[in-house]
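Input record (one chain):
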Amino acid sequence: MGRRSRQRTRAAAGRGPEKLNAPAAEYRDGEGNVLVLRGSLPAGARREFSRVLAGGLDREDAWQRAAELLFERLAVSWTIAGLEISSQKELLGRYRMATQAERRFVRDALRDHVSEHFPELHAP
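The corresponding structure, as predicted from the sequence alone:
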């Protein structure tokens, strides 16, 4: 029996390390759309976010890329007009096609979420 197999056996029997899940938070806009964001952000993603904000990009580009990076790392699902999107690829594509009002909603939700869950970061 290999190492991975033993780990799977232990985990299935409840003896292995238990995976921790951070609670997700829901944000709703005035039209009933719901954005669900993760309650955890790995240290590597935090460093990448800080690098993007401090990088050599034009300030506006840096803010846009930083917001997109946060959305990409934190978005679990986004329900728009009753249609739920939960695939990471589709979420990012939908974010890139979002209207100005939708982007404002996402940006405000990200700011609230980051200030509550990750106070050391400064959301764009």
